[in-house]
Amino acid sequence: MSGIGSALLNSLDIGLLLFIIAVGLNIVFGVLNIINFAHGALYMLGAYLAFTLINIVGMPFWAALLLAPLGVAILAVLIDRFLLRYIYSRDIADSLLLTFALLLIINESVRMIWGSGIQVVQPPQLLAGSMDIMGSSIPTYSLFVIVMGLALLAGLWFLFNRTRIGRIMRAAALDRDMAEVLCINTRLVVTGVFAFGAWLAAVGGVIAAPMRALDPGMGDKIIIESFIVVVIGGLGSFPGALLGAIILGLIHGFGGRYFPEVNMLLPFLGMALVLLFKPNGIMGKGAAA
Questions:
Q1: Which terminus of the chain has fewer CB atoms gathered within 10 Å of its CB, N or C?
Q2: Cα-Cα-Cα-Cα dihedral sign, residues 79, 82, 83, 85
Q3: Which residues of 161-185 are buried (b: 16+ CB within 10 A; e: fewer)?
Q4: Cβ-based neighbour number of residue 26 at 10 Å
Q5: Who contacts 136 (Cβ-Cβ below 8 Å, separation ≥6)?
Q6: CA distances from 129 to 60, 125, 126, 173, 212 (A)
Q7: Is 114 exposed, middle or buried (0-12, 13-18, 19+ CB in 10 A)?
Q8: Which residues partner with 165 through β-bridges?
Q9: Whose CA is closest to 110, among 154, 58, 27, 52?
Q10: Could you tell me if 198 and 187 are in contact, meaning their C-beta atoms sit under 8 angstroms apart?
Q11: pTM of the model
Q12: How far is it, in rounded angstroms, from Cα 272 to Cα 75?
């Protein structure tokens, strides 16, 4: 029983971290109708900025958690203003090519600035050590990741369902022309949504930094997992991002413990099955048809 409990907590840990990252990708697609390949690079940039603020500048982890995502969001505003704004009205393939180019540029920039070696960020002293839960020793930091994931989930639900900003974002996603008729500044909404998606990616990067070694290829790995999440849950669906992340977390948590030989294959197998029987994702547009 302790092994199952440990696997469940590990699955929740992985799943909620993936949700924080993948939901930003989904929000950007839902409102802007672009698939942002650079999302993983922005996640990586958040992790490296946190490393710089903590290990080099000497800031506490909590300050890095506030400042690093803010820095990435500011970069996202510049990317939107000087690059993406010219391709929003074009075919979706143009956004794929441009954001893929941004992924390569950010990857090489990280390699030039921080080098190709592996960097490590230690968890804050408050979250060091472990706790005994359900007969298993669980790292305290893993519990923090779960709490952060649940807090962001609740915050996003409140944002989209109980605030004027959330209603404006939903209106822009449903019909941008009608939103403009209603005197909504859709240009500002688009920039804000792209920056918000980048902020979420960077928050995921800062939270992941004490859990995973930092290297210039970490963004490529996470964007693959994020795409698996949104394909399983449904591209553009907020509940789908949560469902897809939890499913992938369960695959990693139980697969790594009980089926280590095929654990790397299981996420792709799950994605293939969803594409065969639910091409729009379990909760994507048209999934109920």
A1: C
A2: positive
A3: eeeeeeebbebbbeebeebeeeebe
A4: 28
A5: 2, 3, 5, 6, 9
A6: 18, 8, 9, 44, 16
A7: middle
A8: none
A9: 52
A10: no
A11: 0.93
A12: 35
Nearest Cα neighbor of 142 from 123, 155, 121, 119 is 123
3-state secondary structure of 214: strand
Give me the amino acid identity at 187.
R
* CA–CA gap between residue 232 and residue 157 (Å, rounded): 20
Strand segments (E) across the chain:
130-133, 136-139
User: Residues near 27 by Cβ (< 8 Å), separated by ≥ 6?
Assistant: 169, 193, 196, 197, 200, 238
- Tokens 């992340």 correspond to 245
| pLDDT tens profile 235-261 | 878 888 999 999 999 998 888 778 887
70 residue type, one letter: L
Amino acid at 32: L
pLDDT tens-digit readout, 59-97: 999 999 999 999 999 999 999 999 998 888 888 889 889
Question: What DSSP letter does each residue of 120-155 carry, written as one string?
Answer: --PPPGGG-SEEEETTEEEEHHHHHHHHHHHHHHHH
Using CA atoms, how far apart are residues 62 and 68, in angstroms rounded to an integer?
Answer: 10
Q: What pairs with residue 136 in β-bridges?
A: 133
